[in-house]
Amino acid sequence: MTIQNSPPCASPGININLGRAAHTVAKALDYVGVDDQCHGRRVGLMTHRTAHFLGWDRETRHFALIAVMLHDCGVSSTSTHKKLAAEIEWKGANDHCVRGGGFLGGFVPFSAYADVVLFHHTRWNELPDTMDDRAKQIANLIFLMDRLDVMRAQFLIDHPSYGVLHNRHLLVDNLSPYIGVLFAPDLFNAMNKAILKDSFWLELEDEFLDEAIFETLSFCDHSSILSFTNLLSLGEMISQIVDAKSPFTHFHSVRVADLTYEVTGLLGYAAERRQLLRLAGLLHDIGKLRTPDEILEKPGSLTETEHDIMLRHPLDSKMVLTGLFPGTPIGRWASHHHEKLNGSGYPYGWSADQIDEETRVLALCDIFQALCQKRPYRERLQVDEVLAIMTRMTEAGELDPVIFHLITENGERLYHVAIREGV
């Protein structure tokens, strides 16, 4: 997806550590598992540790680590995650590989990882000749470590975590029938050496995992100054992952971003400020990756429990976005977009004096677009119906009256922005 009509920005961009960014994306992607929140990071560390026994140089090991942390970016639904976590091979697995490769290909700094992600569930003896030998090895090592982590997860259902140390070979034995077919023999041999180290397993524990990854990443400089064009591409990539979770939220993030850009233009914002808020609009719902599909797609009213589950997504968004864009207000704006001026919003229940103008713009644009869009519980509303609902909300003290007046004056134009489909 491409954000339209974006003027050049005078700012040189933002300094982003791409290794840390990949880690943060992995954390967000792990939300899809709902209960299992560390799969991508564990597989990344296992891959890096096994790569040592293959004699790969540091640059290649780090390339593999970052690629693996991104490898499941095509998994947006909890149903797909459950299939991948339950079976060695699943005939629908290739779908998320194709999506993931496509997502990464659209963001230049991550595009080098697209091929290995595209083929990370392809059998060793079926990898295409168009791939170079090292790319084949990385893709297949991801597949092998991914399936080893599935074996570990299944073992832990009925055993304590320390039990893995005395049963490590049993986990590997479950994969050995697939040597030479699913997995390359030399990669399997390297794994057999790596798993002998107790640290290989202990570092996978939640309390050690992230520190082990950050320590590893620190041996290389992964920082990069991203232009606003590339920052928007990163935002677009992640918004596609979020919007792919449910057909009813498809394009929602992009259209909210378009609306914030239009409204801030009407408000006279400077270019950089508009771009930052546009990013917040693109990514405001990233926390919904953790929301189960059946809640997002429910055709009726939510139960009290389902509603409570929904209440946490702004904080999940904040955690991800402050990690992706440190030192910027993007995470704060995105996590506050459900606040109301009269204190009736969530999760903080803040009042008007605690809600800045950018957050008010984002909140209004989110509501406007959601009302314009078809949802599981209703059809798309017409512009007069949308404005009537928002008028009542404004009169109740929930929404900013000045910004809402600007929206009503440009209602037809903004409505066409909100309902636009495609890129």
Protein architecture, described:
With 423 residues, this protein is an all-alpha fold. It folds into two domains: 15-217, Hypothetical protein af1432; 228-419, Hypothetical protein af1432 (Orthogonal Bundle). It has helices spanning 18-30, 39-52, 58-69, 78-86, 93-105, 114-118, 133-156, 168-173, 185-194, 198-202, 206-217, 228-243, 252-266, 271-283, 293-296, 304-310, 313-324, 330-335, 357-372, 383-395, 401-409, 411-419; strands at 14-17, 223-226. The longest helix is centred in the middle third of the chain and has 24 residues, at 133-156.
What is the architecture of the largest domain at the second tier of CATH?
Orthogonal Bundle
How helical, in percent, are the residues? 55-70%
| CATH class type of the largest domain | Mainly Alpha
* Biggest sheet descriptor: 2 strands, antiparallel
Mean pLDDT comes to 89
CATH superfamily grouping of the largest domain: Hypothetical protein af1432
Q: How far is it from the N-terminal to the C-terminal residue, by CA?
A: 5 Å
User: What Rg, in angstroms, do the CA atoms define?
Assistant: 23 Å
